[in-house]
Amino acid sequence: MSVTTEGDRDPVSANDNGSPYGLGHSSGVSGFFAWWREELAVLAPKGMRRAFESHTMGATVQELDGQALLKRKSGAAGKVLPADPRKVAALLPKGGVIYLLPEDGALRRERRLPSASRAHIQDIMNLQMASETPFTVDEVYTNSVVSGEDDATREIIVAQALAPRPAIDAIVQRMRDTYGIELAGMDIATPEGRAGFNLLPAADAAPARAGWPSVNKLLLIAAILAGIFAAVSWRDLQQRRIASADAVIAAAEGNASEAIAAKTQIENGIAGIQRLAATQKDPTSFLKVYNQIAALLPDGSWLEEYSYEAPIATITGLSANSSSLVEAMESSELVKSARFTSPIVTDQRTGAERFRIEITLKSQPGQEKQP
Predict the structure, then answer these.
(1) What is the pLDDT of residues 255-266, one digit of tens each?
(2) 3-class state of residue 178 by DSSP
(3) pTM for the complete prediction?
């Protein structure tokens, strides 16, 4: 279920659950300071760069073989937590704890988006998620992060993770009841450490404890003294960006085919959003219809393919007794009719009968017919 990651990182993030997890560039004062911090991080010695980077907690907890293993920082040895909240409290760091899901504990995918969409990656990825996966936004907790950037194509690479809400809520409650831990975040474990997501809802995230001013804060205060130089650099950067934008516009005006292709892509995107809106209004979602049809299959039958475009679902699979499948489908109050759409043949490898059935579903109360 996972895709290739780059280990521990703190990428730009926009969490639909409301998590304060990263900062993206934007215009105005906030964009200036975000850019300034990154420029200073590049210029500073390696040992001082963490003073300008986004703050991330290093302590993690992971459940392995029925035990909760706490690591106070990346690469440190783990310590098994006792099943006594009073003893656990003495082991927890001040900065909070991030829970690590197993690599297969969440669905992960990547998409390339225009750089201009950086501030809206969560909305865009959620719209695509609902049309490309059997889940809706209401069924999962999701988080999208910028994992890379292609300057040549002016695109960003966005990674998204999503996990079922009941599973995440159960973990939060279990850690609270068993160990007395109020989780500050939830990420995905990788061979290198962490994937860089935060799937924990904002309402469940524990605030970080206040502490003494750190060396990082003192270094940041010292960096403010370079404000005049940074302001000039910011102005020059904006002028370079404007010049680059002018060059792109000139190239677009000289290449009509690219403009037509871009217009077609936008129109396709609008059509996809309209299809998504129609799908979300349908009370019989892709996943619900699949679960109901799968439950109707008798013992000795299993699915190989499933497709659904309201109000017709098509299933293909193998069965020890295909003749009873149509009757089994039509026994449901959800099904209007069912019929075989191809002859029943015997699979040489398994000896079972291969079938293909078209199922017409009944209209649901309040269902709106969509184009």
Answers:
(1) 777 778 788 888
(2) helix
(3) 0.43
